[in-house]
User: Fold this.
Amino acid sequence: MAAPSLEAAEVGPAKRRWARARAALGALFSSRLDKSGGRIRLIAFVMFAAYAAVAGKLVDLGLAHDPPQMLKLDADQAVSGARPDLLDRNGAILATDVKTMSVFAEPRRIIDKDEAVELITAVLPDVDAKELRERLGSKKGFVWVKRQVTPKEQQEIFHLGLPGVGFLPENKRVYPNGPLAAHVIGFVDKDNVGIAGMEKYLDQQSLTDPHVAGFVVDPAALKPVRLSLDLDATHALRDELVAGMARFKAKAAAGAILEVNTGEVIALESLPDFDPNDPADFNKDPTRINRMNVGVYEMGSTFKALSIAMALDAGKVTLNSRIDARESLRYGHFTIHDFHATHRVLTVPEVFTHSSNIGTARMALMVGVEAHQAFLKKMGELDRMRTELPESAEPLVPKRWGELNTMTIAFGQGLNVAPLQAMMAVAALVNGGELMTPTFLPRDEAAALAVSHRVVSAQTSESMRYLMRSNATHGSAGLANVPGYYVGGKTGTADKIVNGHYSQDKVLTTFMAIAPADKPKYLYMAMYDEPQGLPEDGGYHTAAWNAGRTVGRLIERVEPLEGAPPADHFPDQPFPLLARLGLGGDADRMGKE
Amino acid sequence: MWRILHVCAIVALIASAAYVYSVKYQTIYADEQLVKTRHQIDKERDAINLLRAEYAHLVRPDRLQELADKQLDMQPLALAQIVKADDLPDRQPKVDSIGRKLESLGLIAESASPSAGVVGGTPPVR
Assistant:
C-alpha cells in the first residue's frame, strides 16, 4: 500500500497546480467582477513589459552608431565640393568642374583586407599597396582608395565585387587653357580647396567654402565668377613673352596689361609658369613665382617717370625748365653717370627721352628727401600692395633714407617694388592722376573712381603722357611705336646686383607703354630677367631692344583684339592743357621733321 | 434586402480599395519617374559641363594658333589690313568693261551675242 499512497501523495500537488492554473486562466477569461483584480494586474504587467521593450530598443537605437549615416557624413566631409566656374571678361571658361568617380572603402565592412588590397592594386597599379593596407587597417569608417579614377578603372573595381568598396562622384577642377593665366587663376588641392591665386581668394570670401559643416553646396546654385582677364589678350601676352624669352635667352619674363581708367588687369603672365591642372608642377620649382606680384625688383629708368611727375607736380620744374647734365653728379664718394651721356644742359623732356640719371637725380633733390618719401608713399610704392590675389610682396625700402637714396631711387635704384605696383603708379600718372589698386575682377570706371584717390594734377598727368609720347617718337621707346596707334612709352634697364655690386651685363629690363597716349586705355608692360643682346641688335641688351620690342608686338596684336582699329590720322590736339599753357608743343615734331 | 445592401457594401469596399491601390501605385510610379528624370537631368548637366570644358580645351588660343600655323597658309594680320567699314568705297555702278573695250575697238558687232547688251550685260544662261 505504500506504493499507491506514495502515488497519491505524488499526484496531489500536481493536481493542485493544474487546478490553480486552470483557475487563473478561468479568471482571465471569466467576466466575474470579483476576479478582475488579478486580471488587471496581469494586463498591467504585460503592458509594462511591452513598453519597457520599446523603451529599451529606443535607448539601444540612440546609443548605436548607425553605419550608413556615419558613412554619409564622412563622405560629405571628404568629397570635393563644387566650385563656381571662373570665366574671363568675355565669358570664356578659365576653370570649371567636371564630375569624376572616386573609389572609397569602409574598412569595417571589408572581410579580408589583405585580399582586398591585392585585388585593388592589381586593378589600380599606381596605388601603393603598403599604404593602402595601412589605411584599410585604420579604425575610420571611410577611407579613399583612389581619387578620380577613369571609367575603365571604375568598371574593373566594380567587377571585383568587393564588399565595403564603393564609388562616389566627385568634382574635379579643370583648367582648359593649361598654363594660360595660371598665376592669376591659381589652383586647388585634391579636395577642391583653393590654395593659390583667385581660387584661394574665392574661398577666402567664404561664399564658396566647399566644406562648411553639414552643408553641401549645390553645384547648380553656384554662379560663375567673371574675372577681368581677357583670354585672347593673355594668350597674346604669353605667346610674345615665350618667344621673347627664347629669343633673348632670358632667365625669366613677365608682363601685364592694365586698363588704366578702371584698374582692371586685362592680362598678366609670369614665366616660367606652370599648369594648374597639375599643381605639383608649381611646387617643384621656386622660380615659378608670380614675378608681377610676388617678385620685387629695382625698376630702373621706368621709375624716372615717377620722379619727373613728382617734380612737375610740386611745381619745381616745368616742361621748359633746363637741367644741368653736363657733368657727372658727385655725392660724397659716389658719382652718378648717364648711360647715354649728353654732356649738356637738358630740357625736362630731354631728361626723360635721354633717360638722364643726372637730370632725374637733380630734380628729386629739388623736391627734397621728405617730399620724395611722401610722394612715393602716396603713390603706393612703399607699402605692400594688396589685390585680390593672396600672394603679395613687401617692397624693399632702404632703412635709412638720405639724399643719396633719394637721388638713386629717383632713377630706379635702391627701391625694390613689385612690377604690378609700379604699373599702378604709372597708370595713375597717365590716367589723369587717379591712383587705384589694380583688380582682377571686372570694375567699371565709376566704381574705380569711388575707391581711387587723386595723386597728381590733371596737368601733370597730361605732361607725363606728352613725355611718354615724345619718348616713342624720338626716344628709346621707338621700337614700340606701332604705326596706327598713338603709343607712348618708357624703357627701364636696371643693372642687377651681383655679389653686392651692380653688374654691367646682368640686367633686368622693363618697358611700359600706353596706348593711345592722348587718352590712354591700356598700359602695357613687359619685363625680362637677364636678357642677352643679339648680334643683329648690335649686342645691346637694354630694354628698348627686348622688352620694348615685345610690347610693340603686343600692342599690334592686342589693340585690334580689344576693338581699337589702327587710326589713319592722329589727334590734332592731343595735349590741350599743355597747348593752352604754351608748353610741350608737338610730341611728334621730331618724328615729322 | 439586407443581403443586397451587404453585397453592395462589399463591392464598394473592394472597388474603393482597388482604386486607392491603383492611385497609390501610380503615385509611386510617378515618384520614381521623377527621381529618374532628376537623375538624368543631373547626368545631362554633368555631361554638358564636361563637353563645355572639353570645348574650351579644344579652342584654347594656343592650340588654335598652333593649328592655324600648321594647317592654314595664312600670315598674321598686319595693321595695314584693318579697315573701318565706313572707309570702304561705295559700290561702283556695274560696268561691262569687256564690252566697252570691244566697242571702242569696233568689234562689238562681231562678238555680240543676241541677249548681251553692251553695258551690264550677262551671257545667256542655257
Summary: Residues 79 and 97 of chain B are 33 Å apart (CA to CA). Chain B touches chain A through 21 residues (CB under 8 Å).
